[in-house]
Design a protein that fits this description.
By secondary structure, the protein is an alpha/beta fold. It has 14 helices and 22 strands. Bound molecules: zinc ion (ZN).
Length: about 450
């Protein structure tokens, strides 16, 4: 029985862990490394194992940094079975197809650039939309929360609600080999308790070892309710000034959460009924539709809404703008529009057009509700840039800028510690965090032997 680490080791992206037991090789996630651009060397490098030798992939959730190398795994010879919850499977489809599309675009762009520099070797896409489509054929059995399943003889898996995004799971694996047994829990990404729509994370039973994410292992989140109030206030102020509101939005959970709170705001009279709200992101629109098919994933409050025949995302004047012509038409609205568009860090996507049309206007506002990495357009604006470059133009930043921090999809330090205490494992592997954060977090763990694996490192279980 062995575990080895092939991504998200002393870093936050590229999650990929390998468990070997009873002659079967099982991956937990196969995520993309995400950095400056997605053709990075880490993604093109060998996995550290033979793709064709992998029997199973247990997928914790549909974020790109957990499922984004699956098409590459298939391209390199994987012919086994991918197991996930039904919501994860549907979301992963959207995410992987989008990634294949972006990879093709990036390769084309790099190819044109190389040609301008007189080079002839055009770079290959990491994988294509077709590779992503092929990957869907390897999704086999569907996992249900809380039900122990026999993945293979000597390997049982239980998927437990991780409360992070729709369909997300933590895993509890029970292993048997040569009359020996062992158990290992994988946190996946853990959600923040008490949020709208999703249930709180469920901790696995006591395990011999635990593999734990540490994204926010060094900080505590601001409470949610004041953040919701801040959102309403920022929108109400913009209405008084007569401008528009632009909210750069992550497609998979944040967009649905915002729609939920906007609906509550309109129903409670905190926001004007006449607010024209646009969800201007094809991926977020697909994810919202998928959300409606999965009542098994909701928290009690949201489930009740659905039972009463209400749609938690239905707003009187909400419009889904899938086509780009509809997206462009939004630019003609001068006042009273609330525009939710991707990408969340404004590094690409339709939100850049909306920023171009609103950033220079004193009466408009831009509200950031998510993480903004160094070097991104979102970070420049948050840090107070006076002008930013968009589509080759220098655009003045005169709009009201707000940053609201209470909407995190990740557990904070104390929630991670509480989850870890419940699992009570004598051995802990920390992953999915920056090294400095992990070191701080490790100091707070008691009664457990802590490892911070390096990429490629393996351990006996
Ligand atoms: Zn995630």
């Amino acid at each position: 029985m062995k575990i080895s680490f092939h991504g998200a080791d002393r870093g936050v992206t590229g999650s990929c862990h390998l468990v070997e037991c009873g002659g079967k090789r099982t991956l937990i996630d196969c995520g993309l490394f995400q950095g400056e651009h997605e053709l990075s060397e880490e993604n093109t490098a060998p996995f550290g194992f033979e793709a064709s030798q992998i029997d199973f992939v247990l997928l914790t959730h549909a974020h790109l940094d957990h499922c984004g190398r699956l098409p590459l795994l298939v391209k390199r010879g994987f012919r086994g079975e991918i197991i996930a919850t039904s919501a994860t499977r549907e979301l992963a489809r959207v995410v992987m197809l989008d990634a294949g599309h972006l990879q093709e675009e990036e390769a084309e762009y790099q190819g044109r650039k190389a040609a301008r520099h007189g080079k002839h070797s055009a770079p290959q896409a990491l994988y294509t939309k077709l590779d992503a489509l092929n990957t869907l054929e390897y999704f086999g059995r569907t996992a249900s929360y809380g039900q122990r399943m026999e993945v293979a003889p000597g390997l049982h898996a239980t998927f437990l609600d991780a409360g992070h995004i729709l369909g997300s799971a933590s895993l509890y694996l029970q292993l048997e080999e040569n009359e020996r047994s062992s158990s290992v829990a994988f946190s996946g990404d853990l959600g923040n308790s008490g949020r709208a729509l999703l249930r709180d994370p469920v901790a696995p039973p006591r395990a011999d070892a635990v593999v734990l994410e540490t994204t926010y292992g060094d900080r505590l989140h601001k409470p949610l309710q004041p953040s919701v109030e801040e959102l309403y206030q920022a929108i109400a102020d913009t209405y008084k000034r007569g401008g528009n509101v632009v909210i750069p939005t992550f497609a998979l959970e944040r967009a649905q959460e915002l729609l939920y709170y906007l609906r509550v705001g309109v129903e409670s009279g905190r926001l004007p009924r006449a607010a024209q709200i646009f969800l201007d992101s094809p991926m977020a629109i697909s994810a919202t539709e998928i959300f409606k098919h999965h009542p098994e994933c909701y928290d009690a409050e949201t489930a009740e809404l659905f039972r009463d025949g209400k749609d938690p995302f239905a707003l009187p004047s909400l419009r889904f703008t899938r086509e780009s012509a509809d997206s462009i038409a939004i630019n003609r609205i001068e006042s009273g529009a609330i525009i939710l568009a991707g990408s969340g860090m404004a590094t690409g996507g339709r939100v850049r057009h909306h920023l171009k049309h609103n950033l220079w206007r004193q009466d408009s506002s831009v509200i950031f509700v998510g993480f903004a990495a160094q070097g991104t357009l979102a970070r420049q604006i948050i840090d107070g840039a006076k002008t930013v470059k968009l589509f080759g133009e220098d655009i003045q930043v005169r709009a009201h800028i707000s940053t609201i921090n209470g909407f995190s999809a990740h557990a904070d330090r104390d929630e991670l510690l509480a989850w870890h205490r419940q699992v009570g494992a004598p051995r802990t592997f920390l992953v999915h965090g920056d090294e400095a954060v992990m070191r701080e977090f490790a100091k707070r763990l008691a009664n457990t032997q802590v490892e911070m694996p390096q990429q490629g490192q393996s351990f006996e279980l």
